[in-house]
Amino acid sequence: MKKTMLCLIGSLALATGGMAQRISPSVLAAGGGSARTATMSLDWTVGEAVVETATTSTRLYTQGFHQPLLQVSEPPTLKVEAAGYSFTIAPNPVATNLTLGIAAPESSPLKLLLTDMNGRQYSLPIVPANTTSTQIDMTTFPAGIYLLRIGKTDGPQLKAYKILKTQ
């Protein structure tokens, strides 16, 4: 009888302990928060005393509550028929002048839009029709990563390039 009662109490204790566990992560911290948009989620804490990262040639090991998740995707572009259009960008990374080579099946002007990673947009001069090469002066822009979008003046975007501006 004692053995049966002991087994019953032990089983109840294990079942209660198992139900007390949570699958969702939680943390006790001095401060922090969470923010979400349609395309991004950001969680942060303040006051985590010890956080360390160790890397090998094939692995990344981190310590702490928040673990890194890096998702890289192409910038959104409209699905358009850009048949026959060909662009070349050189040099990339660029310090002074960026050369844009253009091979187009039709003679139409092109619009260029340069955007930094903070979302600031810089309008560039319209590229006239029948132009095969143009220079973009990058000396006035601070070092950083930019997105160069090329499109028709009367239509959608044709192509986007990631540009690295150096000192």
Automatic annotation (TrEMBL):
Which segment of the chain is annotated as a signal peptide? 1-29
Describe the location of the Secretion system C-terminal sorting domain by residue ranges: 90-155
Please indicate which superkingdom the organism of origin belongs to: Bacteria
Report the Pfam families cross-referenced here: Por_Secre_tail (PF18962)
Which keywords belong to this entry?
Answer: Signal
* InterPro entries, per the entry: Secre_tail
Q: What is this protein called?
A: T9SS type A sorting domain-containing protein
Q: Which organism is it from?
A: Fibrella rubiginis
